């Protein structure tokens, strides 16, 4: 029965065209742009501050290999016994050196869900999430602390 309902829903979307698709459905499948912030400091300094910020926010660095231009970190896995699923935030960052001693940081969060029931695993990029601002504020705080230490 669920399979039939899913088939009818998908058929309606395909036959109805994108202009008739509800905004919530269209947003779910549209491209999500990363959040971008600039910080005072060279690439290496901002990269190191980002690593420390993730540790302060209880994220685990999962990929920081190679040159300091990419970084990935993930939150703890939160499991729900009643819903039978687990959730985890994964942050992907790209760093770009800019003129004037500044570094630009692009961040894209993805919510990864492993459902015990229908649907299995899924990942959805987060257009808006409170962690974006928390992370960028923590990076700024680390940079200010390190600047104070070097005086």
SSE layout:
Elements: H1 2-16, H2 23-29, E1 35-40, H3 43-56, E2 60-63, E3 70-74, E4 78-80, E5 85-98, E6 102-115, E7 121-125, H4 130-149
Antiparallel strand pairs: 1-6, 2-3, 3-5, 4-5, 5-6, 6-7
Helix pairs in contact: 3-4
Distinct helical segment count: 4
Structural class: alpha+beta
Cα-to-Cα separation, first versus last residue: 68 Å
**Cα shape:** elongated
Within the CATH hierarchy, at the fold level, what is the topology of the largest domain?
Answer: TATA-Binding Protein
**Alpha carbon gyration radius:** 20 Å
Q: How would you spell out the order of helices and strands?
A: HHEHEEEEEEH
Helical content stands at 25-40%
Largest sheet: 7 strands, antiparallel
Q: CATH top level of the largest domain?
A: Alpha Beta
Overall mean confidence score, pLDDT: 83
Polypeptide structure, described:
With 151 residues, the chain is α+β, with helices and mostly antiparallel strands. The chain has 2 domains: 1-30, no CATH class; 33-149, Kinase associated domain 1, KA1 (TATA-Binding Protein, 2-Layer Sandwich), CATH 3.30.310.80. It has helices spanning 2-16, 23-29, 43-56, 130-149, and strands spanning 35-40, 60-63, 70-74, 78-80, 85-98, 102-115, 121-125. β2 and β3 (70-74) form a beta hairpin. The chain is elongated, with a radius of gyration of 20 Å. It starts with a helix and ends with a helix.
Structure keywords:
alpha+beta, TATA-Binding Protein, 7-stranded antiparallel beta sheet, 37% helix, 34% strand, elongated
